[in-house]
Amino acid sequence: MKPIAKLLATAAAFGLLAGGASAEDMRIALVVKALGIGFFEAAAKGAEEAAGELGNVEIIYTGPTDTTAEGQIEVINSLIAQKVDAIAVSANDTDALVPTLKKAMQRGITVISWDSGVAPEGRQMHLNPSSNPLIGNMIIKLAADNLPEGGDVAVLSATTTSTNQNIWIDEMKKVMPDYPGINLVATVYGDDLADKSYREAQGLMQSYPDLDAIIAPTSVGIVAAAQAVADAGKIGQVNVTGLGLPSEMAGAIESGASKSFAIWNPIDLGYAATMIAYNLANGDDEAAPGATIGMGRLGEVTLDDNNEGAMADPFVYDSSNIDDFKDIF
Q: Which terminus of the chain is more solvent-facing, meaning fewer CB atoms within 10 Å of its CB: N or C?
């Protein structure tokens, strides 16, 4: 099967393509928060890898042009009209997508969420990239490890309604007593837009002149914050950390704007989501508390009482290993 270009995937999502796959192909739609984000483009590569292994799968990689629930609802309605076999969505809003996704399931479409979850009634299962407590601990640990005497930190998140961001920040707050001297001074939101995230990072440094670290658990925000720190001449004073892509953060590691950051492998995440969607749509596995679902080369995911499961632990990138990964994703 030939990989589907982003523009073709977008066109398919809005009903501009007629056919193209054989009658036997299972069509799995990978719906991302927005097109043009490196993390999700890497996930699409993983989805294509899974499709190549399975042999009878067409991937429709699509999403809105901005990170809104309304944009995703429009895309999902189009996919329902196309009668795709499965939808795997990284949600911009926990609850807003539920009515549309329920409609999809009522019409026999397999629905899972991955990366950023949908409320349980709107999907069959959710794949977390890692365990939420482990991620929450990791993002504060990355800041605290470079502040042995303690210090002031701030969070630059995505949107106020972003499911995964809010959970990770809550988990981070739970473990903050384990890091004495670390003081959270503010949480701001850049809406996963580079320019707004940059301005929010600037605002944090102006409002808190003694700020020691900015934690951005978003691949867009962390790059914008690192640029803001560099432009403000505060490399060595304000450390930027959180979750990011090696390809996008290599310059920040080299400049010292970021000492370390973490992420799971988005290629693996797209691969796992596709394998899960395929196994559920094919009837090979069932989404139920305690069930295991195959993830191809990544093994199996075990679902909890909320039909959620974790793919893997986050991985830390720094100057010792960034060159090994920056050309991959």
A: N
The strand pair at 292-294 and 300-302 is best described as: antiparallel
> 38 and 219 in contact (C-beta within 8 Å)?
yes
| Domain spans, the chain | 6-128+265-311, 132-263
pLDDT digits (tens, 9 = 90+) for 281-290: 999 999 999 9
Neighbouring CB atoms inside 10 A of 284's CB total 10
Contacts of 280 by beta carbon, 8 Å cutoff, 6+ apart:
86, 110, 112, 124, 125, 286, 287, 293
Q: Taking the mean position of all CA atoms in its chain, how far away is CA 236? A: 28
The residues of the chain scoring below 70 in pLDDT are 1-23
Same CATH topology for 6-128+265-311 and 132-263? Answer: yes
Nearest to 67 by CA among 32, 100, 99, 41: 32
Q: According to CATH, what is the number of the domain 6-128+265-311?
A: 3.40.50.2300
Q: Give the domain 132-263 fold.
A: Rossmann fold (3.40.50)
pLDDT for 199-219, tens place per residue? 999 999 999 999 999 999 999
Give pLDDT, residue 122.
Answer: 98
Residue 79: predicted pLDDT: 98
The pLDDT of residue 264: 86
Tell me how far apart the alpha carbons of residues 172 and 260 are, in angstroms, rounded to a whole number. 17
> What is the residue whose two structure tokens read 């977390």?
128
The model's pTM is 0.76
The dihedrals phi and psi of 124, each to the nearest 5 degrees, come to: -90, -35
**pLDDT for residue 226:** 98
Q: What is the pLDDT of residue 194?
A: 98
Task: Give the Å distances, CA to CA, from 227 to 197, 259, 324.
Answer: 10, 14, 22
Print burial letters for 152-188: b (CB count within 10 Å at least 16), e (below 16). bbbbbbbbebbbbbbbbbebbeebbeebeebebebbb
